[in-house]
Amino acid sequence: MTLLSVDGVTKRFGGLAAVSDVSFEVPEGTITGLIGPNGAGKSTLFSMIAGAQRPTAGRISFAGKDITGWQPHEAARAGVGRTFQLMRVFGSMTVLENLTTAAHLRHRTKASARAVAERVCAETNLGSYAHRPAATLTGATKKRLELARALATSPRLLLLDEVLSGLTPTETAEAISLIEQVHAQGITIVLVEHVMQVVMSLCPRLVVLDFGKLIFTGSPDDAVKDQAVLDAYLGA
Amino acid sequence: MTATLAPPSARPVPARKVPWGRYAGIAVVAVLLVVYPLVAKTSFLQTIGVTALTMAIASTGWNILGGYAGQISFGHAVFFGTGMYGTTLLVTGGWSPWLTMMPIALLAAVLGVLIGLPTFRLRGHYFSIATLAIGMMVMSILPNIQWLGATDGLSVPFLDEGFWNLTFSLRDKTEYYYTALGLFAVATVAAWLFLRGRIGSYLEAIRDDDVAASAVGVPVRRYKLYAVAMSAALTSIAGSFHVMFVTFVDPSSSSDLSLSTAIALIAVVGGAGSMWGPILGAWLVIALQEYTRTYLSATGRTIDLMMFGALIILVAVVDPRGLVNLVKRGYRRVRR
């Protein structure tokens, strides 16, 4: 079943088309890698799916509903969770308070939101940081918190924007196993990533953008043989 | 989504320690507040007490919007003035002062929402600038409204002494003091209940990062409007009480910029975004203000503003999280 469908989506900033006429589908329960060189329009596409930017043209449907132009909080309520490339944790709150805030989306009372937060906190291995103010965490832990916070909203689709870049090899391994665990829970994942080995091993499906245009959809094995993809990465 | 994904190494979340320090703090402050008028017998000291508690209520209102939601208002005197004028008019019409508080607070809340509706659409400091502008507009419009007494202002009609009339002996202000203390307690509990659950989390999330807040499902604008409504209502109640104490309201006593500044400054000096901020800040700022007024100048207007400026610099340099954080740091050092 198709969970997310992007249909002819275009975003123009003045005369520049950051994303032009991109269409692809994401089946429920899959991990899809969204890749492309710098400036290909990956983040803009993410923003539009999450409601942070409104497409100039085209349609985005999620779980059968047209969510084009929805506000971010409406997309979150519908089940789209996201992380930010430049980390945006709630700095003055503790880790647990960050997660409780996110859990409040589906849990009205403080007690039940807190229970969800504690579960997510343990599952994402943030237990020992639970009562630390988020502003005092290291970059890698902040990224982990971003992911945990998105999970605490109980999303159906998780948009991960470069959660692996800038991590040490150990941290990367931990993050990958976390993403695999999240996927095993049945959550659909779309991730933007620059670390190619990771994308190749983690994602059975790739969507490749270049200069705002869709140039490839398919498996990683086919991607490395595709002339358009090779041109985009190595220069024609 | 019932499957659990805890890795074998997952450490459980340690339980939070019981905050004995906080309970002890509440007990100490409560005892001090109750005992104060029994020790401070002079009219001057009692006026400081009543005024400090009134301003603590007003500042508790400001703190919800400014301290928790991070929307800095420089115009809260407008809501304070709404309370002062509204209660005066209704009491003149024969109402009990107590009965005027809720409807006037509701009016102030509506006023707050009306200011918030257009300005919360924009991100950044537009709300702050708008509150500053509205405060100045009200200040220049008020002297021209005849039914609000124009520049002469309005006097609260003479009422018999008694709790129902919120009118007591002025020779000994103990009764005013304890009434103000009760009202402050109610306002603090109301603010605490308002903030303890989802609303409080959402407001702090908006203050920390509004983009991230909306990504986890916070309807940012709607929650800012909740905050401004509650904030304006509490500040208006402080104004309602204040006018019964001073029995007179005119444009400069109700709406000017130095009043707006004082309401904001009290929370900031005490600790913005903390329930402790308003009460700690109010005693310090009001005591300083009354002493400088009495000993340094006849009206104190300019001295007030100079002092406010100095306090802002002091807070920024010593500890931007205010007095409450100084006390916490001291407490932690003693315990260690």
Quaternary organisation:
heterodimer
CATH architecture of the largest domain in chain A: 3-Layer(aba) Sandwich
What is the molecular shape of chain B? globular
Largest protein interface? A-B, 49 and 34 residues
Q: In which range does the helix fraction of chain B lie?
A: over 70%
Strand content bin of chain A: 25-35%
| Structure summary, number of beta strands of chain B | 2
**What number of domains of chain A?**
2
Low confidence ranges of chain B: none
Description of the molecule:
The complex is a heterodimer of chains A (236) and B (336). Chain A contains 9 helices and 10 strands. Chain A has 236 residues and is an alpha/beta fold. Chain A is globular and about 50 Å long. Chain B has a domain at 38-255. Chain B contains 14 helices and 2 strands. Chain B has helices at 20-39, 43-68, 77-92, 97-119, 126-141, 174-195, 198-208, 210-215, 220-246, 251-255, 257-271, 277-296, 301-318, 323-335; strands at residues 154-155, 248-249. In chain B, strands 1-2 form a two-stranded antiparallel sheet. In chain B, helix 1 runs antiparallel to helix 6, helix 2 (43-68) runs parallel beside helix 6 and helix 3 packs antiparallel against helix 4. The radius of gyration of chain B is 21 Å and the shape is globular. In chain B, 46% of the residues are buried. At the A-B interface, helix 2, helix 3, helix 4 and helix 6 of A face helix 7 and helix 8 of B.
